[in-house]
Structures are given as C-alpha cells and as structure tokens.
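User: Last request for today: this protein with S-adenosyl-L-homocysteine, please.
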Amino acid sequence: MNETTSQTDSGKRYYIETYGCQMNEYDSSLVAGILEERGYEKSDLAEDADLILVNTCSVREKAEDTALQKLDSIAHLKRKRPGTRLGVIGCMAENRREQILARIPQVDLLLGPDHYDKLGSALDAGAPRRGATTGLGVDRNQTYEGFFPAAPSTVSAFVAIQRGCDKKCTYCIVPFTRGPERSRPSHDILEETRRLVDKGVVEINLLGQTVNSWRSDISFAQLLRELGRIDGVRRIRFTSPHPRHFTESVCLAMAETPAVCPHVHMPVQSGSSRVLRAMRRQYGRDQYLAIVERLRRHIPDVAITTDIIAGYPGETREEHLETLSLMEEVRFDSAFMFAYSARPGTPAALEPETISPQEKLARLQEIIELQQSHSAQRLSEQVGRIEEVLLEGSSRRDEREWIGKTPHFRKVLLHPGPEARPGTILPVRLLARRGTVLRGEVA
Ligand code: SAH
Ligand code: SF4
Ligand code: F3S
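Assistant: Here's the final one, the structure of the complex with S-adenosyl-L-homocysteine:
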C-alpha cells in the first residue's frame, strides 16, 4: 500500500500529546494509524513510550508556550531514558523549527503537517547522529489519499476532507503552517466513513479550515447528501464553514439530509465591517447577518456557534461595541472567544498594537460575559422539550451518569442513565439547565 506499512516495530509503544484544533486531533489519529500499521502499540503514559510525539499548534502565543513547556518536560524524561525518540509534529514544527531545535536539542524528528507519510522512513533510518530528521515545507498536493486513521475509541469521529487554507486572514498563521487549500477526493472520504461505521462510529464531523469551500468531483452540498446515504451514519457535522461559502444549495442539503445536524459553527471574528475588512475576512457585518437569516429560514431552530477575536489592531471602542451588538442580534448558542495575539510573519503583526493589554482583556471579558448570558438563555429555552440524544459514554464523575448530545450539539446528562451502549440514540425529555449542560430523562 505505502512505504509505512512494513511491520518492523512490533512490541514498541508510542505516545502522542496533541495541542491545537480538531485538525490536529485528526492528524494525530492519522499518525497513530501509520504507527499501528508498523506494529506500534499505544501507550497512555509518555514515561512508558519508545516514541513520543508532540503535535503542536501556533495559532496563538499561549498555544506555543504550552507546547514548549511540555517539550521541556519530555526532554527531561529523555535525558533519563536516552533510547526514547522524541518527535515534534504539527504547525510549530513547520513554523518554529529553529526555535524548537535551539531550545530542545533532544528532538530527533520534526515533521510538518504535510509530511506524516514520511514517518515510516524516518523511523527506519534511525536517530540521526546530529540534529533532527526533518520533513518540512508545504506540499500542495498532499491529501493523505489512501491513509486512514487508527480505530477511534469513541462513537463520534473526525474526517478531514480538506487541508490548508486559501483565505489568508491577516491575523492568522494557519495558511503559513498548513499551506494552500486542497480538497481530499470524495471516494476517499466515503471510504473512510464506511470504515468508521464498521468500527461502531455513528457520528462523523467533517473537518476543513473553510470546510464548505470543499469541492472535488462533486460539490460540498452533494457530499453531504452522499454521506447521508451511507448506512449507519446517524449524524453528520462539519467545522468550520466560512460565511462566504454558505450557499443556498448547502443550506438545502442540510435541511433535506436528515443525518446532517441542525448546528453550524460559523466564526464571525468581529461585528464591525471596518474591522472585518481589515482582517480580510471577505464578508461584512450585514452579509454575515444575511447568512444567519438564510440558515434560520431553511433550518428554523438551527444552533449557531462562533469564534470572536477581541482587540484586533486598530479596533476602536465603538467597533468593539458593534461586536457586542452583533452578538445581541444573533444570540449565539456558544462561542470560542480570544484576545488578539500577534503572530510573527502574518500581515497583522506589522500593524501597531493600538490597544493596551488591559483594554484588550477588558473587551474580551465583556464579550465573554455577554456570551455566557446568551448561552444560558439559549439552553434554558430547551427545558421541557424532547430531543434525540446520542449517548457518548458515562461521565468520569459517576459511572451511572450518561453524557450525550442533542442534534444541536447541546450536552445532556442523564442520571441515572439507561441500560444502553454508547452510540445509542434515545428520545430524552430535557428537565433543567445545570450551568452549561442540560439534565434529562429518557422520554
Ligand atoms: N479556519 C477557521 C478558524 C481556524 S483558527 C475559520 O476561519 O473559521 C480558530 C480561531 O482562532 C479563529 O476562528 C480565530 O477566532 C482564532 N484566531 C486565529 N488567529 C488568531 C490570532 N492571531 N489571535 C487570536 N485569535 C486567533
Ligand atoms: Fe485562518 Fe482565515 Fe483560514 Fe480560518 S479562514 S484558517 S482564520 S486564514
Ligand atoms: Fe493550531 Fe495549526 Fe490548528 S496552528 S489551530 S493546530 S491548524
């Protein structure tokens, strides 16, 4: 099949620590698949592993700092066990190569997101005498066709359908670490989905940086319909769609394919058209609101979640208030909210930071507080309804308590839970809101 399938490492153990977005989580399972084909077994502890991989993220400064600290502690481990091999993969491998090697000379493998197919040959070659074995740089043809992730332990799985990003938002490092947009062929996506269903997966979550701009021999809307026809696929989600590509036909495919969930995570970033233009987001406030309306017309009770950045360079107090007023208009179900973090190499990093760190955090706090009240209201509105809940597993706190999700991606706790297996979908009466979750009982 491919160069990585020779079984040369049976008995060895691997450990992967993953930071960053769902794409990185997916890539870690892809890498796990490559290692397991070679005979490696998964280890839950870095201390027990022969190969330790850290899958890194560069999206904000904090993400990089966290990964570097983890690498420091693993390097310490390696000094005690010199036979252990240490690899850095993901976005920082691509973006921070010199910094990583200077700070952590114990690293013997560096692979960027387009080079995981070289993992096998890098392992065959053994540890380099000096420096690290590297696979770096963007490969604009890489879609990992014919590579499939390791068997998931959950009833829900990610399926990457697109790699890279062509949008070049001014603040964002992703186009630099992951290169231009590529669509994975539809036959490969359908094949991976069928394999997942065979292993007990009932929910798939399609991944791409602008997932709805995916196109190969068929359109994204057609892909949703095709996936909806696969026996055993009970739920389909996708993340993150870009507002510009939310066409009428995608809305129709969502509305007409029963398995596609009525939830859309559509990052807005700002409520100010001036800031959105400065960010090169390719839509303005009114266009975003028009897409929200289009979604609500086709899927009346659709849940909408988002990403918001506070304190983009040059953002005025009034422009910040426009973000709050957009939030009031849309009433998002939930949001990921971030303080702007300058990423060296991006166009926005050349802009002077006009907002003090205190003011930036104060704006973020206002956004968070408003969102918390909206999230609570939206959840409370669900109380009394009966929803189909997908049972995911028992809660860590109490084995008799089940955790599940509604089609709208709302978390539900059932206590005591029913006699059932993970992956079961049951009608549940929603009884009360408890913080950010709903409590329910089988209806
Ligand atoms: N491709 C997705 C987002 C990927 S990054 C999309 O465009 O929809 C996830 C989120 O991180 C972004 O939506 C943005 O809100 C945030 N983000 C990205 N770069 C950032 C930066 N430099 N500072 C703060 N937040 C950032
Ligand atoms: Fe980054 Fe923009 Fe691409 Fe999202 S769409 S990954 S924010 S460049
Ligand atoms: Fe981070 Fe790379 Fe994802 S920078 S957010 S891991 S694409």
